[in-house]
Design a protein that fits this description.
CATH architecture of the largest domain: 3-Layer(aba) Sandwich
Helix content: 25-40%
Distance between the termini: 18 Å
Oligomer: single chain
Structural class: alpha/beta
Number of helices: 6
CATH class of the largest domain: Alpha Beta
Largest sheet: 6 strands, mixed
């Protein structure tokens, strides 16, 4: 399975980008800028003209250029409509940090999103995920500020984890101990893509030399 659009996209729409520095959408956009991401960034917020000096759009449907990946950071009640818009825009990859789904009993919304994903042939990581990191392509969609959570330098370890708490602790440990990371994947509720898909992808990834898969009770080293 080729998941390059999640880790080496040429363009990203940040749906739910915000001017409020305390909001997740603002943190994600700033992290992408501060990490040195070289692709095109499209903040999406119907109430803003620009955020962090970048032109803002009311919807992904207002963007004329191709969007390779969308990062969704809107409240759960808006998520279904956002996924529909991504389908209309022919966006093939969505990373959804939004929480408030099956983990709190809202399975109905997850089922509707799953139906749209299948219809529109979209792949999704999440929802309820911490984010994605690729130290080699300067991709950073983790919703914790870089000042609060230091990122590890580029290296050969790729780490996959469902739990955001475990994942953030591992990132902090790797950075302080000097371990180099290739990719970091926090996949949350695994509505679509899961650890099996990531293992398959990372097994063919040239920058990954070692995989660490974390469950709630143990670590698996591959």
């Amino acid at each position: 399975m080729n998941l390059d659009r999640f880790f080496r996209p040429k363009s990203i729409a940040i749906i739910g980008a915000s001017r409020d520095t305390n909001k997740v959408g603002h943190v994600i956009l700033k992290n992408l800028i501060d990490s040195g991401f070289k692709g095109k960034l499209y903040p999406i917020n119907p109430k803003a003209d620009e955020i962090l000096g970048i032109k803002c759009y009311k919807s992904v449907l207002d963007i004329r250029s191709e969007i390779e990946m969308a990062v969704v950071a809107v409240p759960a009640q808006f998520a279904v409509d956002v996924v529909k818009q991504c389908g209309a825009k022919e966006i093939e990859a969505i990373a959804m940090v939004t929480a408030g789904f099956a983990e709190v009993g809202n399975k109905k919304a997850e089922d509707e999103i799953k139906r749209i994903l299948k219809k529109e042939q979209i792949r999704l990581i999440g929802p309820n995920m911490l984010g994605l990191l690729d130290a080699h392509s300067n991709l950073d969609t983790i919703f914790l500020p870089r000042l609060r959570l230091t990122r590890p330098h580029a290296g050969g370890i790729s780490f996959v984890c469902q739990s955001g708490a475990v994942a953030s602790a591992m990132l902090d440990l790797a950075a302080t101990q000097g371990y180099g990371f290739s990719k970091f994947i926090s996949y949350g509720n695994a509505l679509d893509l899961n650890e099996s898909d990531f293992i398959e992808y990372l097994g063919k990834d040239k920058t990954t030399k070692e995989q660490l898969i974390a469950s709630e009770r143990s670590f698996l080293r591959i």
